[in-house]
Specification:
139 residues, alpha+beta, 4 helices, 32% strand
């Protein structure tokens, strides 16, 4: 059994489900693992808040999936979702689980700091983004 990827979830977010499995470069997924772990529903985080002493859903959703699902030629797709998929202001795609992990950490940190989606998107798509630069140097 493979390990879950470490994910830093700050206060104010709830894990709805997590099947984000670590696939080291030297241990690619088997065909059975593509079916079990690399589908369109890998990770879902929901922003939550307290209102009158009760936890409530607060809007933003972070969604991670593999597209096309179960396809070895696919990619991870990380999205910030607003208004039930009517607004997807941040999308980031990559095949490497470690680059996605870095992008997820960056997305959560910047949202917690109150950064706008446009700013986050620019950071994640910048060729100097640390996750991209580190992985490109290793290849």
């Amino acid at each position: 059994m493979r390990d879950l990827m470490p994910v830093r979830v700050p206060a104010g977010w709830a894990v709805v489900f997590n099947l984000f499995i670590e696939f080291p470069i030297d241990q690619p997924p088997t065909s059975e693992e593509y079916e079990a772990y690399l589908g369109e529903d890998i990770l879902s985080l929901q922003r939550v808040g307290v209102n009158d002493g009760r936890w409530e859903v607060a809007g933003d959703v972070i969604d991670l999936g593999w597209y096309p699902g179960e396809d070895p030629s696919g990619v991870y797709r990380l999205c910030l979702v607003r208004d039930r998929w009517k607004d997807v202001p941040v999308t980031f795609e990559h095949r490497d689980c470690y680059v996605i992990q870095k992008a997820l950490d960056t997305l959560l940190r910047m949202l917690s700091e109150g950064k706008r989606a446009e700013v986050i998107s620019r950071v994640l798509t910048d060729p100097r983004f640390p996750g991209l630069a580190q992985r490109q140097r290793r290849n």
